[in-house]
Amino acid sequence: MVKPPSTSIWITMQRKRLALMILLGFSVSTVVVILLRSTFDSCIVDHQFVEEKFQSASNPLTFMKSKLVLLVSHELSLSGGPLLLMELAFLLREVGTKVVWITNQKRLEEDEVVYSLEHKMLNRGVQVMSAKSQEATDTALKADLIVLNTAVAGKWLDAVLKDNVVKVLPKILWWIHEMRGHYFKPDLVKHLPFVAGAMIDSHATAEYWKNRTQARLGIKMPKTYVVHLGNNKELMEVAEDSVAKRVLREHVRESLGVRNEDLLFGIINSVSRGKGQDLFLRAFHDSLEMIKEKKLQVPTMHAVVVGSDMSKQTKFETELRNFVQGKKLQNYVHFVNKTLTVAPYIAAIDVLVQNSQARGECFGRITIEAMAFKLPVLGTAAGGTMEIVVDGTTGLLHSAGKEGVIPLAKNIVKLATQVELRLRMGKNGYERVKEMFLEHHMSHRIASVLREVLQHAKARGLQ
Questions:
Q1: If DSSP codes are grouped into helix, strand and coil, which group holds residue 339?
Q2: How far apart are CA 186 and CA 150, in angstroms?
Q3: What does the pLDDT average to over 75-81?
Q4: Based on the domain organization, do 267 and 209 belong to the same domain?
Q5: In this structure, are 283 and 418 located in the same domain?
Q6: What is the pTM of this model?
Q7: What is the CATH number of the domain that holds 303?
Q8: Residues 376 and 274 in one domain
Q9: pLDDT at 152
Q10: What are the tens digits of pLDDT across the range 1-49?
Q11: Backbone phi, then psi, for 34, in 5-degree steps?
Q12: Is there a single domain that holds both residue 319 and residue 447?
């Protein structure tokens, strides 16, 4: 397994750039980034202080100052939903919101990831409390706003609030990220029609929920808001720092055994069948066969799968490794464990593959992160990916399922043989991110939703 960048690389960078601070920022699919930033002299610091005050004054979430917000997550992990909710917590804390966090499903045994994420929240002023405590019930009753994160968080309502559920429904915003059918169960979403609103990451997912709840459960969705996500400032700063990107790229490639001139295709998601790593590896193998048959001149090609976890996906992980071994690709396919530091791997690859299957990604945060690094995207023509990637302009789309393997293989060959196309698509993707998918875009979109939810609660006499 490849280890995340070592302490020595950061030290080297600090020596090169005078003094660098390492900041940890969060990334949906599952991702958190490292910010490498130069320190400036006192005059520039003063200028930054003034600029930050101006930004604070113009923050669209300023009206949330002193409000009490309860965030309820079904779990606390490195997956997309919890990390997005944490990002919202930090955005609210920046404007002085009182934020309380509850994790409904918490492991009994000590968990290093949970411990780390909880303390990160505590350090940022987010209060963390037990999901089943009386304090949690009291906070829910007093809160100005409650955000339920993912459909599974609905279990918390009856289990903890019990007779008080009806009192809090008018001030609940339900933030939904799921695209799978097994979430449509009465015990999870029976209260959904009565909450103040649902916030969903893409139009495709919103339409799916509208149709599925009606057809399967006979219930109507509440007022639904589609809010596309945005890259946080920390991610954008490292993406736009050429020195940081070069050092990260060199270090990761060296650790993988990939030369600078080699082509590296990367898929960055938690390893599972739904994310399509198996079909990607088949397509990668087929692309190598196509190149060999046509005697095309291309750099040595590699693939990296970031997001492994043998402890949870043993059967599927074993299938992937057996395929690699059977096709004699051990020197060209690399597996990397789940890691908080995904930015180095984005910096290291040349093309991102977003191969989520069935209905695709709800949104796909890693897609806009890769585009920020000026990478073309090869994605499935499904779900939120179609609202991000412009086919033929910022990347190339292929169908989901087995029928998408050959088209994906052909797209891999196309980008492998056309350097100018890769660069042009990467540049176009970066421009699209700057236009639509930045933190301030997301903040404005979320702010408009929160205003309406608060007005809804006020109209119901809850404030």
A1: coil
A2: 14
A3: 85
A4: no
A5: yes
A6: 0.85
A7: 3.40.50.2000
A8: yes
A9: 87
A10: 444 444 444 434 444 443 333 333 334 333 333 333 333 333 333 444 4
A11: -105, 130
A12: no
